Amino acid sequence: MKTKTGTGKYESLLERCKSLDPVPTAVAHPCEASALSGAIEAGELGLIQPILVGPAAKIAEVAKAAGVDLGKTEIIDAAHSHASAAKAVELVRQGRAELLMKGSLHTDELLGAVVARETGLRTGRRLSHVFIMDVPTYHKVLVITDAAINIAPTLEDKVDICQNAIDLCVSLGVEKPKVAILAAVETVNSKMSATLDAAALCKMAERGQITGGILDGPLAFDNAISAEAAKTKKIQSPVAGDPDILLAPDLEAGNILAKQLIFLANADSAGLVLGARVPIILTSRADSVRSRIASCAVAVLAAYARRTKA
Fold this sequence. Notes:
single chain, alpha/beta, Rossmann fold, Isopropylmalate Dehydrogenase, 2 domains, eleven-stranded mixed β-sheet, globular
């Protein structure tokens, strides 16, 4: 995943997908131009095989208005967004789809169908969100978690959030992902719960409760990203200056961090929800085409990794 600074990071992911067959993907309620075109473009690139789930007449109307050629794309009629979410999840449960993709419905509506106790896609893991970021000033793809689902995660929640992100990075080709557990300071302080969680997570990794990654924390953001900053503070760390994953202390910190990188550092961001039976592609109307396609590429690699494990 390492490339020249600021260039080609997402393209290297797309390159990894070239030899893979398209993955059947249930697209829930693609009733808006960007949501529909994103799914169709990913299909044309051979990343996914979209199955559009929603009001068939509305999808056709949106496609016509946006100049999107649906070709022979399968459309499964569903009366409204709630029904679209339920039907898309059902397609995954039936094995007809290996990925789930958000269309133009609200994220909460889609995730409500995913976590439904009897009909959803729950696993033993907690759901968590990852931003997979191409930051021009950083030397490789950077994963930030959790910035969208878990508002104030407990230590146990953070175990799953961390493991989900590690497993994803492994599926993207990182042999031993490095995890920087962020806090405001790099020392353990009983008055700052994020530092206690960081210390506990590192010990849990030592004891095999978190596997596959190299963890260090607490680390302030400067010490996590800059080896020079860590050296100045005399921090000995296998992670400082080279993390693959930044584990935020809570949703607000993660969300602010990700959006700062997007709007101040011109970063591109792909988004996935992990921890369900299949990866869930989360895109928004504000996403660039490059980001939407990257989200699909990352999901495809995760889906193939899941096949290998099964």
